[in-house]
Write a structure and sequence with these properties.
Blueprint: E1 7-12, E2 17-31, E3 36-42, E4 47-51, E5 54-58, H1 62-68, H2 71-76, E6 82-87, H3 92-97, E7 105-109, H4 113-122, E8 135-138, H5 142-148, E9 154-160, H6 174-183, E10 184-193, H7 201-213, E11 218-225, E12 233-240, H8 250-254, H9 265-271, H10 276-279
The protein binds S-adenosylmethionine.
Length: 287
C-alpha cells in the first residue's frame, strides 16, 4: 500500500500504469506458501482481494469477470456436465458454473488453499455454492491435475489463473493446452482469462497460436469491461477441441432461469465482436 494509508495502489511497470482504490482498513494480510495475500475494506468497491500486490477482485465489480469467464463457454457447449476450473480460488467462477442445472460435477483446482479460506471469510457471497453436492474443491497444482485427468473426462475447462508469472506461467503454455485438450471430451471447450487487449495483445495472440498448435480446432476471444484490472478492458480466449466452435445456445441463454448482472444473450453476441485494431496484423506500424 502506498505511503498514503488511505489508498491501495496497484502499479504495473510493464504498462506504465497504476490503479488506486480508496481504502478504510486493511482486514487481512498473510504470506501463504505460494503468494502474499491481502484483503482491504474500500470506501466504494467493497472488499478488495490482492495477491502479490495485484488486484484479483472487488466485491463491487467481480460479477462482470466471473459471469464472462463462465456463461459464454457454458452456453456454447451443447450439454456441459463435467466442468473443471483451474485456479479460481475465490470461488466466484464456481458459483456461476453451478447456476447451470445441467452441470453434474464442478472440480475447482487451486494450488493455494489459503486463497479459498480467505475468500470464505471476506467474500462469503462468492462462496455460497461451495457446499453444493456437485462442487469439489482441490488444492493442488492445476498442471498435475490435468495431467492426471482421465482422457476425455471434462466437457469444459476454465482457466481462471493469476497473470502468467510464477506458478501460473505454465498455465499459459502450449504443453498445458495440449494436456487440457486430452482431458476434454468430444465437443470439449477450453476458456482462459487472457488479460487486456489494450496492454497484452501479443499475449492474446500467442495464446491463440499455442491453443491451435496444441491441436484445438478453432479459437476465439471475447472482450468485456473489468474496471479494476489494468486498462479496465479484459478478455477470455475460448478454444474448441475437435471441430469448429458451435453456435451458442442463444435461446437457452435467454431462458436461462437464473440471475446474472452482466451476462445476457445480447452481451454474449457483442462480446465476441472483434475490435478493429485486433484485426490488423501486428507487424504493421501503428500510425
Ligand atoms: N481473476 C484473477 C485474474 O484474472 O488475475 C484470478 C483470480 S484467482 C484468485 C487466481 C488463482 O490462480 C489464485 O488463487 C492462484 O492460487 C491460482 N493459481 C496460480 N497458479 C496456479 C496453478 N499452477 N494451479 C492452480 N491454481 C493456480
Amino acid at each position: 500500500m502506498t505511503s498514503d494509508e488511505k489508498w491501495f495502489t496497484e502499479k504495473c511497470d510493464d504498462s506504465g500504469s497504476s490503479f488506486s482504490l480508496k481504502v478504510t482498513q486493511k482486514l487481512h494480510e498473510e504470506q501463504s506458501a505460494y503468494q502474499h495475500i491481502e484483503v482491504y475494506a474500500t470506501e466504494h468497491f467493497g472488499h478488495l482481494l490482492v495477491l502479490d500486490g495485484y488486484i484479483m477482485l472487488t466485491a463491487l465489480d467481480n460479477f462482470i469477470y466471473h459471469e464472462m469467464m463462465t456463461h459464454p463457454v457454458l452456453f456454447t457447449h451443447p450439454d456441459p456436465r463435467r466442468v473443471l476450473i483451474i485456479g479460481g480460488g475465490d470461488c466466484g467462477c464456481l458459483h456461476e458454473v453451478l447456476k447451470h442445472p445441467g452441470v453434474t460435477q464442478a472440480d475447482q483446482v487451486d494450488i493455494d488453499e489459503r486463497v479459498t479460506r480467505v475468500a470464505e471469510e471476506y467474500f462469503p457471497e462468492l462462496c455460497v455454492s461451495n457446499d453444493d453436492a456437485r462442487a469439489a474443491l482441490h488444492f493442488v497444482d492445476g498442471i498435475k491435475w490435468v495431467e492426471d485427468a482421465a482422457p476425455g473426462y471434462y466437457d469444459v475447462i476454465i482457466i481462471d489463473s493469476t497473470d502468467p508469472i510464477g506458478q501460473a506461467a505454465r498455465l499459459f503454455s502450449q504443453e498445458f493446452y495440449a494436456s487440457c485438450r486430452r482431458a476434454l471430451g468430444e465437443n470439449g471447450l477450453l476458456v482462459a482469462q487472457s488479460e487486456s487487449p489494450l496492454l497484452h495483445r501479443e499475449l492474446i495472440e500467442a495464446m491463440q497460436d499455442r491453443m491451435v498448435s496444441a491441436g484445438f480446432a478453432e479459437v476465439t476471444t471475447c472482450y468485456f469491461p473489468q474496471p479494476t484490472y489494468p486498462s479496465g478492458w479484459w478478455t477470455a480466449t475460448m478454444a474448441c477441441n475437435d471441430r469448429a466452435l458451435p453456435g451458442f445456445r442463444a435461446q437457452d441463454a435467454v431462458d436461462r432461469g437464473f440471475t446474472t448482472r452482466y451476462y445476457n444473450e445480447q452481451i454474449h453476441r457483442a462480446a465476441f465482436a472483434i475490435p478493429e485494431f485486433m484485426n490488423v496484423s501486428l507487424d504493421l506500424p501503428v500510425d
